[in-house]
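Q: Hi! First time doing this. I have a protein sequence and I read that you can turn it into a structure. Is that right? Here it is:
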Amino acid sequence: MSDAGEAARKLFAGPCDFVWGIQRVGDALPPAKLPEVAFVGRSNVGKSSLLNALTGRKTLARVSQTPGATRQINFFDLSHKLMLADLPGYGFAKVSKSEAAAWQEMIFDYLRGRSSLCRALLLIDARRGPGDSDRQVLTLLNQAAVSTLVVLTKLDEVAEKDRAAALTGTQDEARRHTVALEQIIATSAKNGHGIATLREHLFGLTAH
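A: Yes, that's right. Below is the predicted 3D structure, encoded as structure tokens:
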């Protein structure tokens, strides 16, 4: 393991504490003192599972098979080096339209106005590729000028022969949006694929 890789491993093995949660537009946000990373994605894409895998914990973020389980923006302080923001999923269908609209407004308001936000991780299910709602969020991130890393999730559920096509299709979509980084990281919270690479990427943000 490289020196950076070992430093990243130690960072994510350190304290990671829930420090704040907001449920509606206008709620106070935590002080913008640390570089901040937002985990963004469709409902049930695996945001909570990825957060748990990154930090080596089983219960840091709630994991549910029910779309829309995360109903607020949850903030986690990682060793006083990085703030991790777990956003509610978008694109869910099993809630009222007014509730879904309120959550979406909260997400978009946060993305547009958070000065400490240095990276958005847009999680896309490797089995499905980018959907219409993912494209809309990429457009929003473009408008808000938020540097974005696209992360494929659930790679273990994609047959090996189909993985290259899944990556290429996602790269083609990402290239249409100027804020999307050229790099795409494919991950599996279940078997750990790509987790070390993503940790090292996020560790690099702590130097800024």
